[in-house]
Structures are given as C-alpha cells and as structure tokens.
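WARN retry 2 of 3 for item q-0093 after timeout on previous attempt; input resubmitted unchanged.
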Amino acid sequence: MHANPTEDKTFDLIHRASDPTFVFDVSTEVFVDMNIPAVAFLGYSKGELRQMGIKDISPSLIRGRTVHEIAAERIQEALEGGNPVYDWIHIHQSGEEIPCEVRLIRVPPYERPLVRATLIDKRNWKLQPERRESEERLLLAMKATGLGTYDWYPEENRIFWDERMHEIFHLAPSSTVDRNAYFLSIMHPDEREAMVKFLTEGLFEDQDTQFFDDPYRVILNGKIHHMRTIGMVLRNSQQKIYRVIGTVQDQTAQIEAAQTAEAFQARWKSIAENPFDWLMIIDPSGTFQYVNRTAPPFDKEDVIGKMTVFDCIDPSQQEYVRDELSFVFASGKAGYYESFFPGLNQWTANYIGPILKDGKVTHVSIMTRNITNQRNIEQHLRETDWILKQAQRITQLGGWDWNIQTGEVKWTPEMFEIYGMDPQGPPLSPDQFLDDIHPEDKELVKKAISEATEEMRPYQSSHRIVRRSDQSIRHIRAFGETFYDENGKQNRLIGTIQDFTEVLESQIRYQTFFEDNISAVFWIEMKKAIPTDLPAQEQAQLIFKNAYVKDCSNRAAQMYGLSSKEEVIGGHIAKAWHLETKEELQAFLALTETFIESGYSWENMLTEEKNVAGETKRFHNSMKGVVENGNLVRIWGSLLDVSTLFPIATQTKLADVQKTHILKILEAVNWKIEGKDGAAQVLDLKPSTLRDKMKKLDIRRKS
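OK item q-0093 returned
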C-alpha cells in the first residue's frame, strides 16, 4: 500500500493493464512500479527493474541521438499535459532488441513527477503489412476528412485528444486545462445541462448503451459550430465503464449548406403555390401530376393522376396542343400555345417548360394565364420556366487517395457518383483528373495545388468539372492535403470533393425568375399580419402602415422611374409607389380597398399611375394576396407596362376609383360633409378640398 490513496488507485490500474506498463519517477530517474506483462516483456524481476531507468533498457543511440536527449523531450511533453506516442527500441535481458511503440501520460498524484509508459510490442507488426497499411490509410483519411479522436478513462479522470481534436476545439495541445471541463465550458448554453447529465448519469446508468451517435453545438470565438460525435463504450465484467472512445467531426459547413438548400426549396415552393398564374406538371400522356392551388376550378384530389390537359381544351384545338407538347418532350426546348378553356369560358396563354432527369425530358410544366381581356394584344410574353424540382442534399462527400510514389489512386463510391462514372471501373488517373476540369478553371486549380504544395499546407478550390459520361458541367469544392515521408519527400495526396451544383442552380433559377421575366415581379411583405375580418377601409390603412418591399426585379423599379431595385428593397411601399401627396395616398387607399374587396386577387387590372418623374403610366396590374390563418401576410404581383397599347379612353382611371371611393364614404355618413364623423374627417381632407373634388368629379346627391 502507498501512503497516498490517489497513488494506490493509480498503481492498481497499472496492475490491471494488459499491455506492459511502467511508472517512471522523473525526479529519481528510476521505475517505481510495473505490472506482470512488463516483467515478462523485458525478462527482469520487479526488484531488478525498480533499480533501473530508461537508459538501462535502451540502446545508447537511437536514430543518431542519445537516449537521454530523446527521452527527456518526450517526458517533458507528458509532464506538460501532452500524450506523446513514438517508436522506440528496448533491450531484453537476453540482449534482444525489441521494437515497440511507447505511449506516455502523466499520472496522479500530481505533486510527484510520475509518468506512465505503456509499451506496444511491434515485433509482430512486420508480419502484418496489410494491417499496418490499412491503419495508416485510416489515419490519413481521418485527417483529410477532419475527424478528431478521443479516448476517455472515467475512473482515472483521464482523457486523450489527438491533434485534430485540439484543432476542432481551438485548444493548444500543450494546454494544461482539463479537457472535460473545457469541453463543457464551450458547450452551447441550451445543451450544456443535457450534456452534463449524459456524461455524469445517462452514460453510466444505461447498461445497454454500447454505441452512441449524437449531434450537439459548441460556441468557438463567438460562432456556433455543429458537431457530431460517434463513440463506443467499453465495460468490465461488472458492467462498469472503464473506457469511452470515439470520433468528432465539425459538420457546420455541411449543415449550413443543407439549410441553404432547404431555404431555396421553401422559397421555390412559395413561388409555385402563391402566384396569380396557374401552374401544372404533366407526364408524357398529358396526365396531371401537379397543380397549384391557384388553378381553378379544380380540387387536387379530382385532378392529379385522373384528368389530362386535353380535358381543359376545346376539341378543335387538341391536335395543335398535342403537337406543341410533343415538340417539347422530343426537343427539350420550351414551348407556347394559346387555347380556349370551355369550362371557364376563358382564353389562356400556356408556357411549357421541360423537366429533365438524366438528360431526358420526363415531364413538362405548364404555366397558364387568363388572357381573355387582352388576347388581341400582339406580344409574346416570355415567362420564367418554373420547375418545382426536389433538390438533392449537397452534403455528400467523395474521398480520394493518390499514392504519388506508386501512382495508385483510390476513390470512395461517392466520387464515382459525382463524376458520373461506373463504380466498378477504375478511378481517374491524376492526368485524367486534371483533364476533366473545365478549361476555364484548369489553370486556377493548378495554381492552387502548386502554391499549397510549395508552402506545405492543405489546398482548396471551387471549380467546375465536365463529366465524361454526358458532358454535363458540375460545380465542386475540392479539399486536399499532401503528406511527406521522413525525408521530406511527397508520398501521398489525400482529399475530398463536394458537389454543390444544385444549390448554385437554385440561386440562378431564382434570380432568373425575377430578372428575366418580361413582366415586372414584386414581393410585398407585411411587418405585421393584417386580419382579414376587419373592414376593407381599416385593412387598407394597415396595409399602407405595415407593407414594405421584400424583393422585386430591376424591371419593377425601372417602371416607376427608379434606377435599380436596391433603391426600394427593404423600404416602405410609399417610395416604390411614389405616394407623396394626400391625394396620391387617398387614391392608393381606394385602389387597395378594391383589391381587398376582390378577394385579394387581381388579374390584369388596368391601372393608371405616376412614376417618380410625374409621368403617367398605364399597367396591367396582377396581384395575389397570401392569407395564412385568417391574416394577410404577403402579396405577390407583377406589372406589365401597356402605356403604348391602350388609348386613355379605355383605361380604368384613378379619377373613377376616387369618385367611387368618395361616393361610398358620403353614402356611409348620409352625405354629412363637415363636423365629427363627417366625410371630410373620414377622408382626412378639409371640407373645402372635399367640395372641390366633388365638383371636379361631378359627385352629386341623387334626389
């Protein structure tokens, strides 16, 4: 027994270890204890070993340096909190040199400079080259893919982090802070209590726990990082945990990429479900596979998989429409047709867009607009091709390993998928790998690799590749690192590739919808939802108070005389609609009431408005209000400038709207003009101003 209980526990654990294990007293430079496997390993008795030190069981020189010099460096690293692992040679009592791996760690009681040394016999390693190569490849792959490893001994309150773990958690390997305490200190506040409970209770109480796979968040330098740990619990014969080992990966980049993809998908779904146009998707037979909720007078259950597009077309036009659809399916090009819908007594403009899978057209989308009131207008509206397509998750990683000295290249299955290649075939050679880079990006990638190699640091690049199978272009992010042998010569390059084509294409499609549409597109958002059960007049005032421009195309801003959409995005609608005078505000409120009373839906409403230069403009104004839980939350809309197509006599003038609005107020107050609750007060006008307007608009009370 030892005088110190902590020392008793330390030595007791050493005697239980299965590998040869010594305790070395740095102050006396002799071994103070060892287990039975250590005695058998060196052939000396315990009494003899307690009189010996490291220099007594090692050669005088190792790789040209003295044993004392090398050992002093490794021991000092362990005393400072590190966990050095290194190759060594020990000498058996018989004189045999034994190659081994040494693992050092400082052990309690910490008032004494005690270091535990665990020896791994490497004599059999020479007989296992495949195992050694596999383990080496695993370590290199873990390093290249960012995996950190940990090894925790709960009874000893001892934990080992490898170099990558320290990098992930922003902690210097030489730091003496307690790793478990540091880990809990950086844990996200919302998850700290649960993690403490798991580490102190849950992990130990649930005896069925053998493996675990848990996500959690930490805060490093003020930024939230998403981590994932996969580990295994080791128990003794009494089912008591004596060791926990596992890996940690920082998945922040992958999660943020997935969130970006989900956000784009949600935005596309909102665009498809809430516009004023009808949106449909059909298969080659013409059967509906999708219709949005704007498409009247259908219930989705009665349409999808049951009706065809030809059920909605006059029989005399079906052959013409069939030819147009066949052209789109065969060529993969967009199409257009106009048809009469007998069920609604409407003419419609129909824009057809191909939906491709693996380079073939499998479905087409049809965007339909009611053009009954303007069918004779000579123009071809070019609409954005809305394709509601399920975006693939972009977090899949492909890994590769190039042995520079032998020329051997190895790929994971994901690499073959990214490059569109047969997984049963060979991977690309380094030269072929460079050949598949897009010609415009090739020099950029070569430069990135060259600079990283010269500076002996990892490299990364974002570039395009051209698939050999179908010549399609994919956008990828590449990460790689060069490894060197003991002579400083390059011997291996390992890395990963991530395909982010879908996210980029989603961004392009969204921007194309806004900027390439022949109509001016806008999105109005409410800072505060507007209850739809309020009177139309009160709703109109609340809309004016809460509405702001969430997004719009440059064409929309330019129609109102502004130079770009940046001048209005995020701003109040008064700036976009040029509402500067009381009269302009009253006209806007009157139009808004008309929109509300029409069920929050306008289709090609002809309006007369002024731009910032004071010029009168005439628009086809189509808007669709989005109502959620009885509240108006946003308005989608489009404008088409028809100033040159319609004479003034055919316009729905603002003066007419104002006249209707004033008449409605006068009738509501029984033609009372002045005083409390009079029409002038309701309209926020002076009585004299109201009388002038009544005279100008020829408003008279019927006798």
